[in-house]
TrEMBL record:
This is Uncharacterized protein. PANTHER family: ALPHA KINASE/ELONGATION FACTOR 2 KINASE, HEAT SHOCK 70 KDA PROTEIN 12A. InterPro entries: ATPase_NBD. It comes from Dreissena polymorpha (Zebra mussel). It comes from the Eukaryota.
Length: 195
């Protein structure tokens, strides 16, 4: 795993099969208290949790993220009630589509209604949502932060092969994370280091 040197923040994205979340820690906070971590609080369906549903709603152009998580579920439900959902792309629990399959950068994913988009687009838009959401919250604590100030850790399942890990690395890069500012960590390793 690469070491972060000049960054002010270390951020982690847990892109889960069913639920996803993110957290970050400022280096100066970590030096004083390694357990001081800021994380997103997701709200939806009368719940407040540290993770939100791994579902994404993409606009009819197939290139623009509309919403992610509980907001995507709610928006897609509203679109369905009015019959407009057929134009939109709604993906949920799509991460494990990368497991146990030949993976290539041109692979396609089918959404809930059978429409296809490039998998790299679906994953990179989802990661981009996490990046934007996290940087918005971190800028509330310290203004003026940009991507160069953040070192990113993206977790993946231990059972994933190298091509699936490489795919996630490409999706993260397409989402805007520079390769030198990114580590891919196996989920159990990340958990054991924190615990």
């Amino acid at each position: 795993m690469a070491k972060s040197d000049g960054e002010l923040v270390v951020a982690a994205i847990d892109f889960g099969t069913t639920y996803s979340g993110w957290a970050f820690s400022f280096k100066h906070d970590f030096e004083r208290d390694p357990c001081k971590v800021s994380a997103k609080t997701w709200t939806g369906h009368q719940l407040t949790t540290l993770k939100g549903p791994t579902c994404v709603l993409i606009k009819p152009d197939g290139k623009t993220l509309d919403t992610f998580g509980y907001d995507a579920e709610t928006q897609y439900s509203q679109l369905s009630q009015s019959g407009e959902h057929k134009k939109w792309y709604y993906f949920q629990k799509f991460k494990m589509m990368l497991w146990n399959k030949p993976i290539h950068k041109d692979m396609m994913l089918d959404d809930e209604s059978g429409k296809s988009l490039p998998a790299i687009t679906v994953f990179s838009l989802s990661i981009r949502f996490m990046i934007d959401d996290l940087t918005s919250m971190s800028n509330q604590q310290v203004s003026g932060l940009n991507l160069e100030d953040i070192y990113w850790v993206l977790t993946v399942p231990a059972i994933w092969n190298d091509s699936a890990k490489q795919f996630m690395r490409l999706a993260a890069q397409e989402a805007g994370i520079p390769c030198e500012k990114l580590s891919i960590a196996l989920e159990p390793e990340a958990a054991s280091i924190y615990c």
